[in-house]
Amino acid sequence: VKAVQIHGPRDVRVADVDDPRPESETDAVVRVTSAGICGSDLHLYHGRIDIEPGFVIGHEFTGVVEEVGASVGRVQPGDRVVGAFQTACGTCWFCRRRWYHNCTSMRLFGFGMAAGNLSGAQAERVLVPNADLALLSIPDELKEAQALFVGDILTTAHQAVRNAAFRPGDTIVVIGCGPVGLLAQRCVLLQGAGVVYALDRDAARLRIAAEHGAIPLNIDEQSADDAILEATDYRGADAVIECVGAEAALNAAIQLVRRNGVVSVAGVYTDDISPFPYGDLWMKDVRLVGGLCNVLAFWEEAMALVTYGRLDPSFIVSHELPLAEAPNAYRLFDRREALKVVLHP
Amino acid sequence: VKAVQIHGPRDVRVADVDDPRPESETDAVVRVTSAGICGSDLHLYHGRIDIEPGFVIGHEFTGVVEEVGASVGRVQPGDRVVGAFQTACGTCWFCRRRWYHNCTSMRLFGFGMAAGNLSGAQAERVLVPNADLALLSIPDELKEAQALFVGDILTTAHQAVRNAAFRPGDTIVVIGCGPVGLLAQRCVLLQGAGVVYALDRDAARLRIAAEHGAIPLNIDEQSADDAILEATDYRGADAVIECVGAEAALNAAIQLVRRNGVVSVAGVYTDDISPFPYGDLWMKDVRLVGGLCNVLAFWEEAMALVTYGRLDPSFIVSHELPLAEAPNAYRLFDRREALKVVLHP
Amino acid sequence: VKAVQIHGPRDVRVADVDDPRPESETDAVVRVTSAGICGSDLHLYHGRIDIEPGFVIGHEFTGVVEEVGASVGRVQPGDRVVGAFQTACGTCWFCRRRWYHNCTSMRLFGFGMAAGNLSGAQAERVLVPNADLALLSIPDELKEAQALFVGDILTTAHQAVRNAAFRPGDTIVVIGCGPVGLLAQRCVLLQGAGVVYALDRDAARLRIAAEHGAIPLNIDEQSADDAILEATDYRGADAVIECVGAEAALNAAIQLVRRNGVVSVAGVYTDDISPFPYGDLWMKDVRLVGGLCNVLAFWEEAMALVTYGRLDPSFIVSHELPLAEAPNAYRLFDRREALKVVLHP
Amino acid sequence: VKAVQIHGPRDVRVADVDDPRPESETDAVVRVTSAGICGSDLHLYHGRIDIEPGFVIGHEFTGVVEEVGASVGRVQPGDRVVGAFQTACGTCWFCRRRWYHNCTSMRLFGFGMAAGNLSGAQAERVLVPNADLALLSIPDELKEAQALFVGDILTTAHQAVRNAAFRPGDTIVVIGCGPVGLLAQRCVLLQGAGVVYALDRDAARLRIAAEHGAIPLNIDEQSADDAILEATDYRGADAVIECVGAEAALNAAIQLVRRNGVVSVAGVYTDDISPFPYGDLWMKDVRLVGGLCNVLAFWEEAMALVTYGRLDPSFIVSHELPLAEAPNAYRLFDRREALKVVLHP
Question: CA–CA separation, B185 vs B175, rounded Å?
Answer without folding.
Answer: 9
